[in-house]
Amino acid sequence: QVQLVESGGGLVQAGGSLRLSCAASGRTFSRRAMGWFRQAPGKEREFVAAISWSSGGTYYADSVKGRFTISRDSAKNTVALQMNSLKFEDTAVYYCAATYGSSWPPVKYDFWGQGTQVTVSS
């Protein structure tokens, strides 16, 4: 099992920035990749970004390319999502996820955090 705890959400004006962090614990040595997802009110959860834990390779949804950056800190066992040039439509609950799978980009995630709210005011 892998436990994931997100932090860093909050309220920000459009055009501003936020940095989310996800701390992983438990059986993390088997983890192959981590990702961020989001779910806006009344919408389905959608993929935002993923990072390969071994290579550091990244993958992004088209909607956030050039604005969001995912990164990892192997020593601290954390993954971060730097969000710049935020838009109203980025408002959502953001979830951290981890996978044992070897597909790239990942197609299935095994563990999920509880989520952190990001609200962008227009």
Description:
This protein has about 120 residues and is mostly beta strands. The protein contains no helices and eleven strands. It has strands at about 1-5, 10-15, 20-25, 35-40, 45-50, 60, 70-75, 80-85, 90-100, 110, 115-120. The strands form two sheets. Strands 2, 4, 5, 6, 9, 10 and 11 form a seven-stranded mixed β-sheet that branches. It is globular. It starts with a strand and ends with a strand. The mean pLDDT is about 95.
Beta content comes to over 45%
Discrete helix count: 0
Largest sheet: 7 strands, mixed
Proportion of helical residues: under 10%
So what's the oligomer here?
A: single chain
Mean of residue pLDDT values: 95
Secondary-structure content class: mainly beta
User: Which spans of ≥5 residues are poorly predicted at pLDDT below 50?
Assistant: none
What order do the helices and strands follow? Answer: EEEEEEEEEEE
Radius of gyration: 13 Å
- According to DSSP, the number of beta strands is 11
Distance between the termini: 39 Å
